[in-house]
Amino acid sequence: MRHVLPMLAAVLLAVCTASHALPDESADPSSADAILDRADAIKIADFQTFGRLVDDLAKRDAKLASLQHWRLRFLQGWRYTWIGDYENGRKALEEVADNATDSVLRFRATATLINLLGVGHRYQEAFVRLGQLQDLMPSIRDRKARFQGLGEASQLLSSAGQFEQAEAYAREMMDNPPPGQTNCIGAQHLLRAQREANRLKTLDPMYIRAIEVCDATGNDVFADTMRADIAAFQLGQGKAAEAVKLLTESRDGLRTLNYPALLTEYDATLAQAYLKLGDLANARRFGLSAVAGSIKGEFTDPRRMGYWVLYEVERRLGNAQAALNYHEEYMQADKAYLNDVSARSLAFQIVDQQLLARKAEVDALNKQNEILRLTGALDRKEVETGRLYIVVLLASLGAIGWLLLWLRRSQLRFMKLARRDGLTGICNREHFVDQAQRVLAYGARSDRGACLILFDLDHFKAVNDTYGHAVGDEVLKRAVDVCRRALHACDVFGRLGGEEFAVLLPDCSPAQARARAEQLRLSIAATSATQARPNLMATASFGIASTTQCGFELHRLLVVADAALYRAKRAGRNCVFMGDTGDIPDSPYLTEARG
């Protein structure tokens, strides 16, 4: 269940800052410092009293000392963020993070600001603030503030696929919890980072003990979040019944916490588990709940998986129109969700490259200043020695210039990698869709027809199950290499997911498309699936759709071609079928594992 940064970050913000400052019982309760301490301590437990204290202090702001003013401004920013006024919250927190004289207060404001920017999908700004947080971290001795910062950093890095650093921060939280905290929160961050990185092979009993600690200390949300991760892991291991048991035992308690984001994650996992168990009624029930409980306007993983389960339920029940409607919702949610995942990863890479480039620029300026200093000293030194220094420094500048050029090329390489499938090197799904829509738009303007070919490898699941995923990957790469040799430079070739591929043939008639598809089919069937196993053969089934019948809308071409592909599977596989628009209601596009 990827992309739960807004949900979990909000919880960490609440838990880690709630106990940061404890009021001094011996202090004058009417003094500004005592009121600030009390407000900071009760802002979660008694939000109304907290608000009144902040309002009272705001009336005395002009008389407050500098540090008191910045503490008040931080609490105002926190309050705005808590009630959902993100714009005013951001302004207040930025003021504190950029101007406060106290480093701990700047650190806390920066950590809270990272949370707010992540919730608002302003990922590039969030990673810039993360860099500032990491620069401050070595100087922070306040364990509670550092604990909060480590949690925010771990979550944001995990959301961008930087799992090693995210795990390192989570382990530090477990090893050094501040007074009043346990290893509960750090264990939750570590579990999620390991699961999202696919490094969780077996369930460490440490996580079960951490759940017990969370339950015992009242950290119910973190306990339930770990249960959600464990259930998702069990589901991936084929233990759907165990996942259902784990989630149903704690779901009623979760409902009383009034935490809809985590509840939708539970419901999406339950919907998938019941679908695997063949319980269509409960699969539909929890799929609808996952969709209904998702944040409006947000395309999260629970929303995406909810639509997928609802599509599968209706398809299995034979409700073609309802299945098609849910499938369209799933496609929209899936694309938006993947775009958000890519945005987080790309934002991290951009900011990381910018930081390296900025450091190189600073080094270059330092070198230039050194050149000026040495130039002024030439009158007091021998000319030959001065020239030698200048040559050395110019060589350094040349090296820095080369580094800047290398960094620029690295940025371009990262952008290219974001458009390519990591296994096969061809277009990934998002880039294929963009390229295909561009080609189709040109074809529509120039009245040149085009054809779409969908194909997938027959019995591919059996290959994975029999020989393992490493051999399966070799089969996929071998098939792609064979197809590349048969395709033209203007053809758009992409991997849609798993063993399913798509080819858009511009300026192509249906007859030509059929001939091209037959050529691809014969090429795949005539070549051994891997070099290491010459006796292992692979075949593929093909479906074709033409703009002559379907028009130039990519989604319609995909659905018609997929219906034809499905008919090729039912006809015995290793064959080519031309799409017919009458097949659209039965199309299982991108959801059924055909094999």
UniProtKB/TrEMBL annotation:
Gene3D superfamilies: 3.30.70.270, Tetratricopeptide repeat domain. It is an enzyme of class 2 (transferase). Its EC number is 2.7.7.65. Residues 448-581 form the GGDEF domain. SUPFAM superfamilies: Nucleotide cyclase, TPR-like. The chain crosses the membrane at residues 388-407. Residues 1-21 form the signal peptide. Coiled coil: none annotated. Keywords: Membrane, Signal, Transmembrane, Transmembrane helix. It catalyses: 2 GTP = 3',3'-c-di-GMP + 2 diphosphate. PANTHER family: DIGUANYLATE CYCLASE DGCM-RELATED, REGULATORY COMPONENTS OF SENSORY TRANSDUCTION SYSTEM. This is diguanylate cyclase. The lineage of its organism: Bacteria, Pseudomonadati, Pseudomonadota, Gammaproteobacteria, Lysobacterales.
